[in-house]
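User: Hello, can you help with two protein structures?

Assistant: Certainly.
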Amino acid sequence: MLGGSSSKGTAVAPVPKKQLTAKEKRTPAGKFAVRLQLLLDERGWESADFARKLGVDPPAVRRWLRADGLPGSLELAIRIGKALDVPGHPFPDWRQAFPENL
């Protein structure tokens, strides 16, 4: 099997990690992507495993890691921080993503 197996026993191809450009890394979505990838790597978690922990679709996590978007709500951003069990807020630039909710 290529990238392991899913719970149904079918082969799952590994998803290549996107290399963000310097410009992308400076955007709120880029900063979020870099920090999220670092936190997942520190824990040895794959994006699909993290998606299951959050109760979201794996493509959503992959979009965040490609800097193609941010979590759609403040509630979800808070769940992400709790799931990562990081002291303080794991995403210092999160206020830029949800200014209307603060």
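That covers the first. Now for the second protein you mentioned:
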Amino acid sequence: MGDECTKIIPLSKSRSELAKKLQNDSINILYAAAFLKMNIERWKSEGSFGKEGIDISENVGILATLYSNGPRKPNTEIKVNKFGITAKNFYIRKNLLQWFEF
């Protein structure tokens, strides 16, 4: 994913440059999306568990947990944290679309 991402989000030359990018709403969303995609790919890659990987692409609870805690080694015993539970409950709400303007 590295070369693919750096075409969209150039590497930062310093921590202050990175901090500035993360404060920009047009750029920080790209970092969030890249972080989620990185975890999805990492977890589903074969060999992560000594066998086939796990597809977490549809598991909002685990993705939100990883997002709030930072990357973790893939683990079939992962526990969804409070942030993950909140994200999942929000995601599955029937009236979710009412919260956003289109």
